[in-house]
Amino acid sequence: MAVLKIYDQNMEKAGEITLAPEVFEVPVRPEILHLVVRAQRASWRAGTHSTLSRSMMKGGGSKPWRQKGTGRARSGSGISPLWRGGAVLFGPQPRDYSFKVNKKVRRLALRMALSARLRDDGLMVLKSIELPEARTRHFAAVAGKLGLTKALLVLPDADEALIRSARNIPGITLCTPEALNVYDILNHPQLVLLEGAVEGVTSRLA
Question: Distance from the CA of 61 to the CA of which of 7, 11, 93, 205 falls in 20 to 30 A?
Fold first, then answer.
């Protein structure tokens, strides 16, 4: 079992916590992480790209000019794909890029991502974060003391004051245990769990 120090917002030791091995000490398989991240990113794609094929365009019913005698190449339609402003052959059409990944695989990938952060010494547990008021400079001062540059902070519950204080700081992302996902964990080298959020993450994945 992994035992981590708990720090306060001044980077001073405030206790210890034992992390569940079935959540934070799982063998990491890169192919599963890759599959889940691909699925997550694919689901974000709008898929609204569209082009006009010949069947979608108006006109093109009459021959632009007679077959012979004009000195120009023969042509049968004004919406030919060969012409500027004409139809597009095999162009992109609206589609859904998302694909299904089993729930058990998604949960396993999330445990693997947490285990990878713990293995790489990128996981920190904080007692709490308390600010005198919801101001960016106050949160930036705390982040500076903790050495946070590109970090994902997991809060026990949605704290509007903390979210407002941190949203303008580049590289800092806040979420709750319910919103924790593989892409965000892997995209942030530093993962910070508030002490109250550890139980939420464990109960979700254990």
Answer: 93
Burial class (CB in 10 A: 0-12, 13-18, 19+), 69: exposed
CA distance 21 to 2: 7
pTM, two decimal places: 0.85
Domain that holds residue 167: 2-45+100-205
pLDDT digits (tens, 9 = 90+) for 187-201: 999 999 999 999 999
Pair (51, 87) in one structural domain? yes
Q: Could you tell me the pLDDT band of residue 148, with boundaries at 50, 70 and 90?
A: very high
Rounded-to-integer distance, Cα 57 and Cα 165, Å: 51
- pLDDT per residue as tens digits for the range 35-64: 999 999 999 999 999 999 999 999 888 899
